[in-house]
Amino acid sequence: MAEAAAPAAPAITGAWTKHVPCRYFMHGLCKEGTNCRYSHGLNTSQPAAVMICKFFQKGNCVFGDRCR
């Protein structure tokens, strides 16, 4: 009795990660080169939402100018 060939597993392309910047590339340390699944472009991702310290906004953050 001949067995049916199992369908090939879909290839993992990492296409969804191409908009995520490669953290290693940003520091000049990515060893994957063109095989890297993350973006090596500097303008390909959308900027992350910036959280501003509510205490800094009010002028009374204990970290002062070092506030993140």
What does this structure look like?
The protein contains two helices and no strands. It has helices at residues 23-26, 54-58. It is mostly loops and 68 residues long. It has one domain (17-66): CCCH zinc finger (Irregular). It is elongated, with a radius of gyration of 22 Å. Pfam families: zf-CCCH_4. Its EC number is 2.3.2.27. Keywords: Metal-binding, Repeat, Ubl conjugation pathway, Zinc, Zinc-finger.
Shape: elongated
Binned, the helix content reads: 10-25%
CATH class term: Few Secondary Structures
Q: According to CATH, what is the topology? A: CCCH zinc finger
Tell me the β content: under 5%
Mean pLDDT: 74
The description of the largest β-sheet is: none
Distance between the termini: 68 Å
List low-confidence stretches. Answer: none
Structural class computed from helices and strand pairing: little secondary structure
Radius of gyration: 22 Å
H-E string: HH
GO biological process, one term: protein polyubiquitination
Pathway: Protein modification; protein ubiquitination
InterPro entries: MKRN-like (IPR045072), Znf-CCCH_4 (IPR041367), Znf_CCCH (IPR000571), Znf_CCCH_sf (IPR036855)
EC number: 2.3.2.27
Summary, kept brief:
It catalyses: S-ubiquitinyl-[E2 ubiquitin-conjugating enzyme]-L-cysteine + [acceptor protein]-L-lysine = [E2 ubiquitin-conjugating enzyme]-L-cysteine + N(6)-ubiquitinyl-[acceptor protein]-L-lysine. The chain has 68 residues and is largely without helices or strands.
Q: Which helices and strands occur, and which strands form pairs?
A:
Blueprint: H1 23-26, H2 54-58
